[in-house]
Write a structure and sequence with these properties.
The chain contains 26 helices and 16 strands. With 561 residues, the protein is α+β, with helices and mostly antiparallel strands.
Length: 561
């Protein structure tokens, strides 16, 4: 009898799965694409339908359809299994609690809690009426699995204990708390709250955000789950499981603040909407633990994003911060200008078409900020001499976050046309900003891998042979030369960093850096030769490069030991 994994692989080919996420190009029997797991201009990501596998010669990512979905959507194996089982129409069955590992037990507890909260809403007319008054339909409430918990200290706790879950497991998922007085028992974290389940990309419940129903003046309006083994607020956005297909289809996402904003937007048919409530935007694509962060997942679906936050001061501040983060990650960011005193939920209920028009009229963030400055000058009747200071404060940080030089140039021209400030003056101020932050923006892995080659180029002597074999092999390589040029303005800071870094055991450290740089260059070369049509030439070049790559990997392993 076939296992679920085998059934899925029988029904889904790797071309179909990967092709539903990224655009593929035919190359003989294989397919290629730009790798979704690292930035690259030349495709080095290859898919082999014959082997049912993928491999990237640029970053080394490889595997089958399960590995791809895990890496693309930031899921574990069980999450990828669920996504692919739904796609293939394969049903999954699970064993008893006792045979599950810790993480799977945690998922089961969260599922039980969600069902309990859903039942709690069905049995509480006041909570149901509150949601209906906010404009939600019963089908929407069921679709988003919204629930309710009454103001009882241990209702969920006793329910889960009856299901044979331990105190330790229930506490680990953040559903119960231990009081300061250790002689007393656990109590429920969430009480008297409308419960919004937060789900991962595969649709599994990993956390909750609870809105208070009766404000007692003491409790927070919203209470969110703490970080757990299942939930890290920087790796998920509310609604990602329901929005991902529409984001991919429409090629843009909409980011709102609250759960009600998102739920009502989906109810109105705008299903490419995500929410930050209960989560937090990460300012990197990948976490230190090598987990894809929330905007990393969104960017893989589409680089285009519209921020539609509340029109109050707090919403504006949150929108500005989110825009800077998204721009710095290489996304194309627009801002939706909501009418004063409205949030998306209000707008959807008042005028569904009005909400759609607000999204259609969203402006690129730099243009939006320029409009904001000029409106402030006009409304407050400020002296035009105030404009440069406002531009420096409210506009230039966003231009600096834009990655493309041509795009930056376009925005500089826009400022000149709107304000009369010369392009030369704008660029000079931008340059001053750049000098302050440029060194920190060089990725640490790039700095580390280039330290020794750069320092040799600029004459800093360290304790290693000057004619190192790796230096001979990589000097003159196009990638090496381009990187040298890219970081040349920061040579003084790099020299200082190297002097600190190489104080002890410099030889082994530099050896590793040089080998890793050479390894990167070989991976790129391997990618390029895959397009050689002469099979004999291809096999010979591939064999030689792959042998050298293996030698490097062996040396790196020895250094680690």
């Amino acid at each position: 009898m076939s296992t679920p994994v085998e059934k899925i692989k029988e029904r889904l080919g790797i071309e179909e799965v990967v092709g539903s996420y990224i655009k593929l190009e035919k190359v003989g029997k294989n397919l290629k694409a730009r790798c979704p797991f690292h930035n690259e201009k030349t495709p080095s990501f290859y898919i082999s339908p014959e082997r049912e596998s993928f491999y990237c010669f640029g970053c080394g990512a490889k595997g089958d359809i399960f590995n791809f979905v895990e890496q693309f959507e930031g899921l574990d194996f069980m999450g990828a299994l669920k996504v692919l089982a739904d796609k293939a129409g394969v049903s999954l069955t699970f064993e008893k609690i006792e045979t599950k590992n810790e993480k799977e037990r945690m998922y089961m507890i969260m599922e039980e809690a969600t069902k309990f909260y859903e039942k709690g809403l069905e049995n509480n007319k006041e909570a149901e009426d509150y949601l209906y008054k906010r404009g939600l339909k019963s089908t929407t409430i069921k679709d988003f699995r919204i629930g309710y918990i009454v103001n009882d200290w241990r209702l969920l706790y006793f329910y889960l204990k009856d299901k044979k879950y331990t105190d330790t497991d229930i506490e680990k998922v953040g559903l119960i708390k231990k009081p300061e007085d250790k002689s007393k028992g656990y109590y429920d974290r969430f009480r008297n709250r409308i419960m919004f389940p937060i789900m991962d990309s595969s649709g599994r419940v990993i956390a909750f955000s609870g809105r208070i129903l009766h404000d007692d003046g003491k409790s927070a309006k919203y209470l969110n789950s703490p970080d757990t083994l299942l939930y890290n607020k920087s790796t998920v956005l509310y609604g990602i499981d329901k929005a991902k297909l529409d984001i991919r289809k429409k090629n843009y996402s909409i980011l709102v603040e609250g759960q009600m904003d998102l739920v009502l937007s989906h109810q109105a048919g705008i299903r490419n909407t995500l929410a930050v409530s209960g989560t937090a935007l990460a300012d990197t694509l990948i976490s230190k633990e090598n987990i894809v962060n929330n905007l990393g997942i969104v960017k893989r679906l589409s680089t285009n994003i519209i921020l539609a936050f509340d029109s109050d001061n707090a919403g504006r501040r949150a929108s500005s911060r989110s825009a800077e983060i998204a721009l710095s990650l290489g996304m194309d960011v627009k801002i939706a200008d909501l009418p004063e005193g409205n949030d998306p939920a209000d707008l959807v209920l008042k005028d569904k078409e009005g909400w759609k028009n607000v999204l259609r009229n969203a402006k690129p963030v730099v243009e939006f900020q320029i409009d904001k400055v000029m409106k402030e000058v006009k409304d407050k009747k400020l002296d035009n001499r105030k404009i440069p200071a406002l531009i420096r404060e409210d506009v230039l940080p966003f231009i600096l976050a834009v990655q493309g030089a041509m795009e930056r140039s376009g925005f500089v021209k826009m400022i000149k046309e709107r304000t009369g400030i010369s392009e030369e003056a704008i660029n000079k101020d931008l340059g001053n900003f750049d000098k302050k932050k440029a060194y920190d923006t060089i990725p640490s892995n790039v700095r580390e891998r280039l330290l020794d080659p750069i320092l040799r180029k600029f004459g800093l002597l360290i304790n290693i042979e000057r004619e190192h074999s790796a230096i001979k092999r990589i000097t003159g390589n196009e990638r090496y030369n381009n990187l040298i040029k890219e970081v040349e303005p920061f040579k003084d800071a790099l020299q200082l960093e190297a002097e600190v870094l190489f104080t002890n055991n410099s030889k082994g450290h530099v050896e590793e850096l040089l080998l890793r740089l050479e390894e990167d260059i070989i991976r790129e070369e391997l990618s390029r030769i895959m397009e050689i049509s002469d099979k004999k030439t291809l096999e010979e070049k591939y064999k030689n490069l792959n042998n050298r790559k293996k030698e490097i990997e062996d040396k790196l392993n020895n250094i680690k030991k």
